[in-house]
Design a protein that fits this description.
Helices cover 22% and strands 26% of the residues. The protein is α+β, with helices and mostly antiparallel strands.
Length: 301
């Protein structure tokens, strides 16, 4: 058991470690699927650092296969025999997942007649990285099996240059810096993540591009790629993305800007091409809603 979980109830510790709800974690303990130091236990037992936890997890729920679907706004920026680079619109998931009924990048590419790699789980073939549903911007999708393997390794080894722009509330001090703080599931909210002791290592670098009266535009560089990483780390600095009410942003400011989502966009993606290793970079312009909001913030300064 990691030190950060010392003293927690067993069901809470399992919930954090495996991203399960407390109810699901308690059910696993109740059915005998979890042991501490090789012994049966109960959900209310307090865990200690260094204890050996063994959990027999159920088979993960698989997303149902779906027919191709036209996705308005999904734009192919570049294509060759190995890769597709796309602009993902807001409100679109990378691939189908349990509980998501909306459009996906995979469905949109299939509807447009694009072939992708058959590597990976059936519902996410070709997908080597993801953007949040509420985040727009640049994504690369593997077309060849070679590209899938090479790109997955590149993301795992952190050799991909992932750049985002984020409009945040207030003015970070210092104006540039690094957030090195572990991230895991939020202790009380199933749909959020948080800086949590014992979580997965997560590193975000930021630099202020321009400071306005009420907000700052940041260039953000990710070393790691955790779910909601930028949003969680900026919220931890007390400067959440404008419009990101899930992580504490002021909804009044978003309404004044006509913004219905977090101001966060994947502006650039750089990596070694899986065919010959040459370095390639692709950029994505701001979509209309983010540009309008930025222009209004600038006008107020």
């Amino acid at each position: 058991m990691p030190e950060g979980l010392d003293g927690l109830r067993l069901d809470a510790a399992i919930s954090r470690l495996f991203g399960l709800s407390r109810t699901a974690a308690a059910d696993l303990v109740g059915t005998g699927a979890a042991t501490l130091d090789g012994n049966p236990t109960v959900k209310s037992e307090r865990v200690t650092a260094g204890a050996v936890l063994e959990v027999q997890l159920p088979e993960p729920e698989r997303a149902a296969a779906r027919p191709p679907e036209v996705v308005p706004g999904l734009t192919v920026r570049y294509e060759d025999d190995d890769i597709l680079v796309v602009d993902k619109p807001v409100g679109v998931a990378a691939h189908p997942s349990p509980g998501w009924e909306g459009p996906t990048v995979i469905g949109g590419l299939a509807a447009a007649g694009h072939r992708v790699s058959t590597s990976g789980a059936e519902e996410r073939q070709g997908i080597v990285h993801r953007l949040d549903v509420g985040t727009s911007g640049c994504m690369v999708v593997a077309k060849s099996e070679r590209a899938y393997t090479v790109l997955k390794d590149a993301f795992r080894e952190r050799t991909v240059d992932k750049r985002y722009h984020a409009l945040v509330q207030g003015h970070p001090d210092p104006t540039s810096g690094t957030v090195d703080a572990p991230i895991d599931r939020h202790p009380t909210s199933a749909y959020k993540f948080a800086v949590v002791a014992g979580g997965r290592d997560s590193v975000t670098h930021y630099e202020t591009i321009e400071a306005f009266r009420h907000a700052s535009l940041l260039d953000v560089h990710l070393e790691t790629g955790r779910t909601h990483q930028i949003r969680v780390h900026l919220a931890a600095l007390k400067h959440p993305c404008v419009g990101d009410v899930t992580y504490g942003a002021d909804p009044t400011l978003a309404r004044k800007l006509g913004l219905e989502r977090q101001w966060l966009h994947a502006v650039r993606l750089g990596f070694a091409h899986p065919d010959d290793g040459r370095w390639v970079e692709f950029e994505s312009p701001y979509p209309a809603d983010l540009q309008t909001a930025l222009d209004r913030v600038a006008e107020w300064s």
